[in-house]
Specification:
The protein folds into two domains: about 120 residues, Response regulator (Rossmann fold), CATH 3.40.50.2300; about 70 residues, Arc Repressor Mutant, subunit A (Orthogonal Bundle), CATH 1.10.10.10. Helix content is about 40%, strand content about 20%. Helix 4 runs parallel beside helix 8 and helix 6 crosses helix 8. The radius of gyration is 18 Å and the shape is elongated. This is Alkaline phosphatase synthesis transcriptional regulatory protein PhoP.
């Protein structure tokens, strides 16, 4: 089944740069030039992934990302921007982006990052699914579903993959690089601090006290582990 990408950029030449290559890669392409149009087309076409420019007329890419994520937890979102500051990257990730690509970029890298995010979104065979029970958390892999004390928690695909990777082996310490490679499956993103941003956002959703986490714990100088005393 052909996967649909929604490309959002206010510069038509940027869209014309991306669209032919991604069509050749086998994707169905929908394009938008404003934030409002992006939300309308997302509702109409139900894309598998959105490549979203930060600077847009009418509504910023950050606000579009926030609204997309609130209405469709399992859609892939890659923010594209000329901004290079680390704080901008963290803002994008914290509102729900799965990845962050800085201009200029190659079409080959863009396609690779798209496929990386789509791999994280892939739904596993229901028959192979098992629920992980970890303290107050119930993690259902096939349904990409997490509940805490019976209430569903909305996680991004990246947050879910991180949680699942850590929770599958409580007490085992994962370095940031290991989480980039195994949980995020990203061959290009080599900024290990990206993991910290995702972990911070995940903690805000699953921990009673994010500053003193019981589930996702920091092992200083090494990385992260899932608490084994739950």
């Amino acid at each position: 089944m052909t996967q649909t990408l929604l490309l959002v950029d206010d510069e038509r030449q940027v869209l014309e740069f991306m669209e032919p290559y991604l069509r050749q890669e086998g994707f169905h392409i929908v394009t938008a030039t404003t934030g409002t149009q992006a939300l309308e087309l997302a509702g109409e076409h139900k894309p598998d992934l959105v490549v979203l420019d930060w600077m847009l007329p009418e509504m910023s890419g950050i606000e579009v990302c926030r609204r997309l994520r609130s209405g469709a937890a399992h859609i892939g979102i890659i923010m594209v921007t000329a901004r290079t500051e680390e704080t901008d990257k963290i803002v994008g990730l914290e509102v729900g982006a799965d990845d962050y690509l800085t201009k200029p970029f190659s079409l080959r890298e863009l396609a690779a990052r798209i496929r990386s995010v789509l791999r994280r979104l892939a739904v596993h065979d229901e028959s192979a699914a098992e629920e992980l029970l970890r303290g107050d958390l119930t993690i259902h892999e096939a349904k990409c579903l997490v509940r805490k004390r019976g209430l569903e928690i909305s996680l991004t695909p990246t947050e879910f993959k991180l949680l699942l990777t850590l929770a599958a082996r409580p007490g085992i310490v994962y370095s940031r690089l290991q989480l980039l490679q195994s949980a995020l499956e990203d061959d290009f993103l080599n900024d290990e601090r990206t993991v910290d941003a995702h972990i911070s956002h995940l903690r805000k959703k699953i921990e009673d006290n994010p500053s003193a986490p019981l589930f996702v714990q920091t092992v200083y100088g090494f990385g992260y582990r899932f608490g084994d005393q739950l």
